[in-house]
Amino acid sequence: MDLLIIGSIGFDNIKTPFGKVNKILGGSAVYASVAASNFVSPTIIGVVGEDFENKYFELLKKHNIDVSQIKVEPGKTFHWEGFYDYDLNTAHTINTQLNVFSKFNPKLSYETKNTKFVFLGNIDPDLQLKIYSQIENPRLIACDTMNYWIEKKLVKLKKLLKKVDVLFINEAEIRQLTKEYNIIKSAKKVLSWGTKIVIVKRGEYGVMCFYKNKIFVLPAYPLEKVFDPTGAGDSFAGGVMGFLAYKLKNNKMLTEQVLRQSIVFGTVTASFCVEDFGINKLYNVTYRDILQRYKEIKHLIHFEMI
Amino acid sequence: MDLLIIGSIGFDNIKTPFGKVNKILGGSAVYASVAASNFVSPTIIGVVGEDFENKYFELLKKHNIDVSQIKVEPGKTFHWEGFYDYDLNTAHTINTQLNVFSKFNPKLSYETKNTKFVFLGNIDPDLQLKIYSQIENPRLIACDTMNYWIEKKLVKLKKLLKKVDVLFINEAEIRQLTKEYNIIKSAKKVLSWGTKIVIVKRGEYGVMCFYKNKIFVLPAYPLEKVFDPTGAGDSFAGGVMGFLAYKLKNNKMLTEQVLRQSIVFGTVTASFCVEDFGINKLYNVTYRDILQRYKEIKHLIHFEMI
Q1: Domain that holds residue A150
Q2: Which of B171, B243, B290, B303 to mutate to test the interface with A (most CBs of A within 10 A)?
Q3: Chain B within 8 Å of A291 (Cβ-Cβ)?
Q4: Per-residue pLDDT reduced to its tens digit, A124-152
Q5: What ipTM was reported for this prediction?
């Protein structure tokens, strides 16, 4: 198994200034795995209800995603309903129904325990720690989190951050987590806790990545049409982790350049995600499309030395 | 004369979460000219009151700034008082006293009329147009503006934008100006009006530059300590215009690379400005310091092709 992706699988109702959709496939594990599947064959660890039709399993399988570790439990699948205003930066939640996800507590199979690359999507830090401890001999483990867990489970979250290699977090969250306003200062604080790489997501402004005493800054791919930001953060993380799992297999070293390239791939993959509702566009993108934007972003930021 | 800089010269009272200062030298023309003087010898067109002591003229002269076109008028010098909260992105004005600046209406001398490079700082578009029409044979004219003029003088501002080569504007302002939320769409609209180059300032997130059908995106230089953002936009514009005036003298062509380099120099120059109150740090920076950050920003955004 190339890459484990743990997170939610669900149905979303989404409203943006440009339209609305009901009951479309979503959830952090879905976005991250569709993104990662451009580079490796990711395995989703997740749970769905009995209302999760076969067509969705087929849809994921067709995209090179291993669905064998998705549990089907009695009850309904996770459901999220939300909307965005014109600024598109903040998701406003109308309703969250955890349903079968409320009892999510995966026991990893022998094979999954031995996976080298793991993305712990945004779930309860207690669960993230439980999953972490089941991984026998990890190479690179990344996690995501959110304001809710920073408020409710700070001690456990900090315990997790001592152990993980990569933290994906947005600007507001890292400020809240570290009680530092300046992003460089807050990233340094998280590094001092033990996390090896801190990746701060800045939405339409791009990303900053901190590791050792170095910084990589990348603007987002400029888009004339941002349709639906749902899943942008997860498809970014999925792209980063997919590329890293691909490049670091067979015990290759993580170099600074591979890390930077992974962030560019994450950025570019996420740029497709936001151009249509849900996974509509992301699902139909080819590696060729991704590579095209990789080259474009290189040109967009290029300037010559003096 | 290398570069004309038209704008305010004044005294500021500034309060930030990190301290406060009273009656320090400021104003758009001061920031822009101190920044530009790293590349050329700029000439300020402006007005001060009788309270503007000789030491300030000397201070500007020592920085390679031509003060011969600054008029001293009976009355008091322009005064601004404002504060910033932790986000440091929005200046909150407490008090503006235009004083002698209220009657600012410069008649250019023979020599200044023949200057090739002009930066029309953020003043009334009527005045910007009057100055524009006095320039005999311009090579490159840039302007700045603000929400106040977009609200009060839209027709005149649009008339100016048909003529100028470069517009410096921030995100909120260009949205207001074009009634487009998306920055790419709004920049394209301004280009369609006739402005040749649109430079959108994004504060701590950097800058986007639009020209023909091309885009250049640059993140800001990352700073651990942002002390006082006053003058950041003006020192950015001053750095850009200073470098352009230097590189394009003797009728050199404006190439895409020179434009991109000018934006990097503007970015780097502005990064020093915000590290202390007023012009304190900007004034003491050398070209060597600027070049050092130019190289650093190149490395910060560097990634290899795949």
Answers
A1: 3-301
A2: B303
A3: yes
A4: 999 999 999 999 999 999 999 999 999 99
A5: 0.95
